[in-house]
Amino acid sequence: MNLSIRPNFIRCNLLASLRKYATTSPEIEQNEQVFIDDTDDVQAREAEIEKKRNKSKLSPAHYNLVNGRRPFETPKSTAHLTVKYNRKMYGTYGVSSGVNPSICWPTKAEIQEKQEYEAVAYPYTIREMIDAAAAKRKEEQARIAERDREVAAKFEKLDQWKKELNAKIAKKTAEVQAAKLKKERLVEEVRRHFGFTLDPRDERFQEMLAKREKEQKKKEKQARMEAKEKLMLAKLQQKNVALNEKS
């Protein structure tokens, strides 16, 4: 090799080596600072695994309910944005619901509205309500006591009422029996009138029976009038006797 070319070759190799080391050092530092962010991939993979584990065929909302979680992570309707719904979610699932617990306290407007409602719905104080309840209880006790006295008084008359009822029943039974005997007697008189056995359903028998009954009623009416006259005469005689004794 030519001596004049060799130093130049060596110089070129040296410069190339220095340039190589000068450029690779920052690249190494840059490579050391690079991190691969695969968090989304891990979460997606975990979600896919969890989805495959669910063999219940339930909807996500129902699956969350069965497992004690909030049914919807994000609002699905306007009802899920209301204060009432979020209060319910916090009351059911607590901190895991993701609801700010401050909404569970009523606002000043709600407190004022509640106070106005209670002022109309419950206008009496506790003492007034206690006194009213005591008066009502006292009135009820007095009513019960009065009812007990009435029952006791009626119970004392129970024997008398039984006797009166039995007397009425006996009187009614006697009247029914007397009417039955009277009917039988009239039927027998009608049979004797014809002198032979006749069917009570026969027209002649019915006519004669009606005639006998009419005559019997007339006799009874006449007897009642005579008894009434006798009673009046007896009263007049008693009055005359009393007047004569006074004179």
UniProtKB/TrEMBL annotation:
InterPro entries: Ribosomal_mL64 (IPR018472), Ribosomal_mL64_sf (IPR043035). Pfam families: CR6_interact. Transmembrane segments: none annotated. The keyword Coiled coil applies. Keywords: Cell cycle, Coiled coil, Mitochondrion, Nucleus, Ribonucleoprotein, Ribosomal protein. It is found in: Mitochondrion; Nucleus. Residues 162-237 form a coiled coil. One of its GO terms (cellular component) is nucleus. Acts as a negative regulator of G1 to S cell cycle phase progression by inhibiting cyclin-dependent kinases. Inhibitory effects are additive with GADD45 proteins but also occur in the absence of GADD45 proteins. Acts as a repressor of the orphan nuclear receptor NR4A1 by inhibiting AB domain-mediated transcriptional activity. May be involved in the hormone-mediated regulation of NR4A1 transcriptional activity. May play a role in mitochondrial protein synthesis. Belongs to the mitochondrion-specific ribosomal protein mL64 family. This is Large ribosomal subunit protein mL64. The lineage of its organism: Eukaryota, Metazoa, Ecdysozoa, Arthropoda, Hexapoda.
